[in-house]
Design brief:
- The complex is a heterotrimer.
- Chain A is of the alpha/beta class.
- Helices cover 43% and strands 24% of the residues of chain A.
- Chain A contains 10 helices and 10 strands.
- In chain A, strands 2-1-5-4-3 form a 5-stranded antiparallel sheet, sandwiched between helices. In chain A, strands 6-7-8-9-10 form a 5-stranded mixed sheet, sandwiched between helices.
- In chain A, β9, α9 (231-239) and β10 form a beta-alpha-beta unit.
- In chain A, α7 runs parallel beside α8 (204-220).
- Chain A starts with 8 loop residues before the first helix and ends in a 12-residue tail after the last helix.
- Chain B has a 5-stranded mixed sheet.
- The N and C termini of chain B lie far apart (32 Å).
- The chains are: A alpha/beta, B alpha/beta, C alpha+beta.
- Chains in contact: A-B, A-C, B-C.
- Chain A binds chain C through residues 171, 174, 178, and chain C through 34, 36, 135.
Chain lengths: 275, 123, 136
């Protein structure tokens, strides 16, 4: 590494310390062979909370959660680093105030020319933000998958449509109920169209779920119209003795939409000719 | 208003009763007394029960609401429950309470329209 | 301020039923349940707390977070030294009431939670344990 300044051990050391102090992402410290802190930096203080005079001479196990120390993790890390030359670990670390942060840690064995271990270098990187971002992405992906599983669309002022595709198990019903009811509340829609054209078959459980969903929507002050009932489904429902007489049903989504507009005292009128 | 107490407001001939988020059993029991006496005093045509703040509706609370609606009916009035939270509606349905055949509306406005019969069942 | 994920509360007055709801809501939320599940758990807790207060002569509620490899959840325990339940299976049927008036509380709680266990004998008090699990 070429240096513009005149060479000299002192100047290099000073610049090196400046590098270590100013690095915002990494806290670089040095430990003696027993794991006690022998050098500190402003960056380390920012990340971990301790001032140099408070921590120098203390064991690096201060940075680990009590349960890890009890499990012997710190001794193990030094042992592995001493043997292999390097150890990388991701896990919880503790600050002076007891708060925890998710860290990436690299412990490097420092060997001199004669082969003696003079100590260890420890580079700690705070991954809390990255982890939070990962959590957020995971949550958002989950939400998107749930939305795709139970899409709820506002097709008109006052009408939400739920085109159900696939089977309706207990878990999906939970998602269905939450999403429909939330949408009805958010949009103040008095009508929810549940379209089951895409539901291949219906059993007693599924019918129960639909009845439950209808009851819950009614408690909010809205009404449900069940649409897309194919002949096969109508047959199954009657054979199973399921009583849907309490729910408004229509064979096609179109018919359901017409009924919904009626309920809202709205009409679809042809545009006048010669516009 | 104490966070736990309920409020009764009169608009024309309708009472709007706003229930607090987490009333204790005494407050819930007082609901019946207070509402029925107010109905008599103001000759109200109907009562709108606003549940939009309610976080938990257990069987005691639900039963009291259902009974109150019945009593209002006997006194010649109409009851409309408004603003139930989705989580509460789902829970109530799961228990199988369903509040009997009580009327519901999406908002206090719609409930008022309905009782004053400015429009039909929807909008 | 966060409530400890393990603890107990005395149920002696009517106000303690509200306190139970409040505490259980905080704990369930902290464990990570969604709003609908939190509402279910709090409603079930309210039913049991009322039973303890009204028919059990007072008692306690204990709560703690439970966890296994794949999932975590909440466990609630309601304990009283009251008259006990003579016929547990009947008490769990909807709408059952001996005149001791347990009524809808237990059946409601059973529907809302994933697991419900009752230990009770006439004259020996009652212990109801409820569990609900989070989908991970």
């Amino acid at each position: 590494m070429a240096m513009a300044q005149p060479r000299g051990t002192e100047n290099e050391a000073e610049l090196l310390q400046l590098l270590v102090d100013n690095m915002s992402d990494y806290a670089i410290i040095m430990l003696d062979p027993q794991g006690n802190v022998i050098s500190w930096s402003a960056a380390a203080e920012r990340l971990k909370g301790w001032k140099a005079e408070e921590i120098i001479g203390q064991s690096f196990s201060r940075f680990y959660p009590p349960e890890d120390v009890a499990a012997g993790k710190t001794e193990n890390e030094l042992r592995v680093a001493a043997k292999e030359g390097r150890l990388e670990d991701e896990g919880w670390r503790m600050r002076k105030d007891g708060s925890r942060f998710w860290a990436n840690v690299v412990i490097t064995r420092l060997r001199d020319g004669s082969g003696n271990i003079r100590g260890f270098g420890k580079v700690t990187r705070d991954l809390t933000e990255r982890r939070a971002a990962e959590e957020k992405i995971r949550r958002q992906t989950q939400e998107i998958l749930e939305m795709a599983a139970v899409p709820v669309v506002q097709v008109w002022e006052g009408i939400v449509l739920v085109p159900l595709i696939g089977t309706l198990d207990s878990q999906r019903t939970q998602q269905l109920m939450e999403r429909v009811l939330n949408r009805v509340t958010e949009t103040n829609s008095p009508v929810a169209l549940l379209d089951i054209t895409g539901v291949p078959s219906i059993d007693t459980q599924t019918a129960q779920h639909l009845i439950e969903t209808t009851a819950a929507v009614r408690l909010l002050g809205a009404e449900v119209i069940l649409t897309g009932i194919r002949p096969a489904i109508a047959q199954t429902l009657v054979h199973l003795g399921i009583d849907l007489s309490n729910i408004t049903t229509r064979a096609s989504l179109g018919a359901g939409l017409r009924r919904a507009l009626e309920m809202l005292k709205l009409q679809v009128v042809p545009a006048s000719a010669g516009n | 208003m104490d966070a736990r107490s309920l409020s009764v407001v009169k608009i024309r001939e309708i009472l709007i009763v706003t229930l607090p988020s987490d009333p204790d059993d005494s407050t819930v029991a007082a609901l019946q007394e207070k509402v029925l006496m107010s109905m008599e005093r103001h000759q109200a045509k109907g009562v709108v029960l606003d549940l939009s703040a309610v976080e938990t509706l257990d069987s005691f609370f639900a039963r009291t609401v259902a009974e109150t609606a019945q009593m209002i009916g006997i006194m010649g009035g109409r009851t409309i429950v408004v603003g139930m939270r989705p989580a509460v509606a789902i829970t109530t349905t799961q228990i199988g309470l369903a509040l009997g055949s009580i009327e519901t509306a999406l908002t206090v406005d719609r409930a008022l329209d309905r009782v004053m019969q400015l429009s039909g069942p929807f909008q | 301020m966060s409530t400890a994920l393990e603890g107990e509360l005395v149920i002696r007055t009517e106000g303690d039923i509200v306190a139970t709801r409040h505490t259980v809501r905080e704990v369930a939320t902290q464990i990570g349940f969604g709003i609908t599940d939190v509402t279910r758990i709090v409603t079930a807790a309210s039913e049991l707390a009322r039973n303890v207060y009204k028919y059990g002569g007072g008692g306690i509620v204990r709560w703690r977070r439970v966890a296994s490899q794949e999932r975590s959840g909440i466990e609630l325990q309601f304990i009283d030294q009251g008259p006990g339940i003579a016929d547990i299976s009947k008490a769990l049927e909807m709408g059952y009431s001996t005149g001791h008036g347990l009524g809808l509380g237990l059946p409601a709680a059973k529907r809302l939670m994933d697991e419900l266990e009752i230990q009770s004998d006439p004259g020996k008090g009652t212990c109801v344990t409820l569990k609900k699990w989070r989908a991970h």
